[in-house]
């Protein structure tokens, strides 16, 4: 966290444990079933101690999703074998300097030229951008307005014209590598198109159905870690002649925190179960992401408060958890966007279209 460097030892351990191939087909190191739930369990447990390490699992899953579900038979087996055998990380290049939540406003282009596509554009906030060797890149393949003209491509890092930019100096989750990536006349074979031309937005939305429960699980893990820290501290720290856990104000914080965590956990694993069953989980996934990340921000803030001055120092991990929690309200769709998605789904259920 202090240096902001990517931890290769943690990455190696995750490969050894099979955590970076969880969502791949079973023949490539993944699970036969329930990969969404397994991803959430692993992410939550790791995030109790290190959100940056948990994020490594999420982004590997998110970046691999367009390959698993969109790669043509000519390249799919080779790519998935390469990821497993060479232990290669995959980054997900969607967000651009001009906007994040407005995916339909994307300006990166992919122009067909014979048997190739030529990609031009700039991506930012690319998690694993500086350490990945494969990139799932969303670009505009037609002049159709909105999301209709977007397509995914597999781009290898060693393609001429691809350049990794500066590493972001972030508030939290600093152990996760986040960079800019520039694509200047990057040529890829037409076979590197992932899914149908113009089908990129649909593929991205399906990816969200997996990733949003995972982000919620990360938030849940951060909240759980902060909660455990303040429970321990409150049963050891004395003030006014008794343990601070005996004061009702502290008890109220503990009770509210535990309730939020349990409520969030129910939503997270329901969303993951629906995903694993092949059922639509868009509304529940957004609810899980929204509730769990808001809860993580509140609980980590309360943890700093319970620890008082010590909570504001780097001697205790709650200050890092406080910083790490904020990102969960922002990426994979801000919580404002989640509320819009939830409301839209509710209204669609009663036949009211917006």
UniProtKB/TrEMBL annotation:
List the cofactors: FAD
Source organism per entry reads Desulfomonile tiedjei
Q: Which residues form the Acyl-CoA oxidase/dehydrogenase middle domain?
A: 91-186
Q: Does the keyword Oxidoreductase apply?
A: yes
The identity of this protein, by name, is Cyclohexane-1-carbonyl-CoA dehydrogenase
Q: Which UniProt keywords apply?
A: FAD, Flavoprotein, Oxidoreductase
The record's note on quaternary structure and interaction partners says: Homotetramer.
Q: Which part of the chain is the Acyl-CoA dehydrogenase/oxidase N-terminal domain?
A: 1-83
């Amino acid at each position: 966290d202090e240096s902001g460097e990517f931890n290769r030892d943690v990455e190696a351990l995750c490969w050894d444990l099979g955590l970076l191939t969880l969502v791949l087909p079973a023949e490539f190191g993944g699970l036969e079933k329930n990969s969404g739930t397994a991803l959430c369990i692993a992410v939550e447990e790791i995030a109790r101690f290190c959100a940056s390490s948990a994020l490594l699992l999420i982004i590997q899953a998110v970046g691999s999703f367009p390959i698993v579900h969109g790669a043509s038979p000519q390249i799919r087996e080779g790519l998935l074998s390469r990821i497993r055998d060479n232990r290669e990380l995959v980054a997900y290049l969607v967000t651009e300097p001009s906007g994040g939540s407005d995916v339909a406003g994307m300006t990166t282009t992919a122009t067909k030229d014979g048997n190739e596509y030529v990609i031009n554009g700039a991506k930012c906030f690319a998690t694993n951008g500086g350490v990945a060797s494969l990139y799932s890149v969303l670009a505009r393949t037609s002049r159709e307005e909105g999301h209709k003209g977007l397509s995914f491509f597999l781009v290898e890092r060693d393609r001429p014209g691809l350049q990794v930019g500066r590493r972001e100096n972030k508030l939290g989750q600093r152990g996760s590598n986040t960079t800019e990536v520039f694509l200047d006349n990057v040529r890829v074979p037409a076979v590197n198109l992932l899914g149908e031309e113009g089908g990129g937005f649909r593929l991205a939305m399906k990816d969200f159905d997996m990733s949003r429960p995972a982000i919620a699980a990360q938030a849940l893990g951060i909240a759980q870690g902060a909660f455990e820290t303040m429970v321990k501290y409150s049963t050891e720290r004395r003030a006014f002649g008794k343990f601070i856990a005996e004061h009702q104000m502290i008890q109220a914080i503990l009770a509210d925190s535990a309730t939020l965590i349990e409520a969030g956990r129910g939503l997270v694993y329901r969303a993951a179960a629906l995903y694993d069953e092949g059922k639509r989980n868009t509304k529940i996934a957004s609810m899980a992401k929204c509730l769990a990340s808001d809860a993580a921000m509140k609980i980590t803030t309360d943890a700093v408060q319970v620890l008082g001055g010590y909570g504001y120092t780097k001697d205790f991990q709650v200050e890092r958890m406080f910083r790490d929690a904020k990102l969960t309200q922002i990426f994979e769709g801000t919580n404002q966007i989640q509320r819009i998605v939830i409301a839209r789904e509710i209204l669609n259920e009663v036949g009211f279209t917006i």
